[in-house]
Structures are given as structure tokens and as C-alpha cells.
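FORM 12-B: Structure-to-Sequence Request
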């Protein structure tokens, strides 16, 4: 079999050829775009940084009462989680290792899906309006995470049954 090509031109789509020595566990010889995964990582990291630095404005938008120190702390911890998931996704995408990028995106999908479930389960304590807003915002990320994963799978000719 020929050589292994990992193409990463600056400021353009990053792609990796599966089946390379550095991707020895991958069974497919296909090109997978990593740019979408990287973009989602940057968006998630930016949201996380914003929640760490300025948790007050989102809290004031979603609540009729002033933010408490506990709610500010909670939003900052959510920001820390999103910053870590975002930067991990960016680093994995930039490495050219498709499995790593897919793994980080899958973890972000799990986190966002649990955010949707927790938001909907909190209807009684935070109210229907705030519950639906929180679930809706998290659901946007769920949809984008799924889109990135499906696009990666389709580019290598795999199906959702192939995810391990």
C-alpha cells in the first residue's frame, strides 16, 4: 500500500487519511474532514470562556430574580466544562487523528444530551419557560454534534452501527 498522507494546509480544511500508521486502529482508507469538528470546538470553548468570565448576563436573561452566588458558581462550572470540551475537541481535530476528534465530539454530545434531559427534568424547580430555554440551547449543540459525527461517518463510508 502507498504512503500515508495527512494534509493540513494553513487556514483551510484539515483532512486525514485513515489507515495511516498513526491511525493504525482505523479500518477505512478514506478522507475525513476535521474542520467542522474544530469549528464546533472553538464555538464551545468561546461559550465556555464567556460563561466563566461573565456568568451574570445569561442568568439575568433567564431569571426574574437577581443571580445568587450559587447560580453564578454553577454557570462558571458549566463554562469550565465547555471550555475543556471545546479545547479538547480543537486539539484532537488539529492533530489529524480522526478517532480522537470523534471521541471528543461524542463526549460533547453526551454532555449536551444530558443537559437537555436535566433541563427538562428541572421544569418544576425553575419553571417551564426557563426549562425550555435551557433545553433548547443545549439541543442546538446536540443537533450540531450529531451533524459533525454523521458527516465524519459518511465520509468514511461507515454507519452509526460502526461507532464503538
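FORM 12-B RESPONSE
SEQUENCE OUT:
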Amino acid at each position: 500500500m502507498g504512503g500515508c498522507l495527512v494534509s493540513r494546509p494553513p487556514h483551510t480544511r484539515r483532512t486525514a487519511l485513515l489507515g495511516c500508521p498513526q491511525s493504525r486502529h482505523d479500518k477505512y482508507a478514506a478522507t475525513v474532514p476535521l474542520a467542522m469538528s474544530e469549528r464546533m470546538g472553538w464555538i464551545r470553548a468561546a461559550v465556555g470562556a464567556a460563561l466563566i468570565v461573565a456568568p451574570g448576563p445569561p442568568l439575568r436573561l433567564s431569571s426574574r430574580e437577581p443571580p445568587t452566588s450559587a447560580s453564578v458558581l454553577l454557570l462558571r462550572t458549566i463554562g469550565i466544562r465547555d471550555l475543556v470540551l471545546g479545547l479538547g475537541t480543537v486539539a484532537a481535530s488539529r492533530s489529524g487523528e480522526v478517532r480522537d476528534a470523534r471521541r471528543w465530539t461524542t463526549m460533547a454530545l453526551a454532555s449536551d444530551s444530558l443537559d437537555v434531559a436535566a433541563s427538562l427534568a428541572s421544569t418544576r424547580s425553575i419553571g417551564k419557560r426557563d426549562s425550555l430555554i435551557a433545553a433548547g440551547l443545549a439541543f442546538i449543540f446536540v443537533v450540531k454534534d450529531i451533524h459533525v459525527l454523521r458527516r465524519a461517518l459518511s465520509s468514511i463510508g461507515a454507519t452509526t452501527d460502526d461507532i464503538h
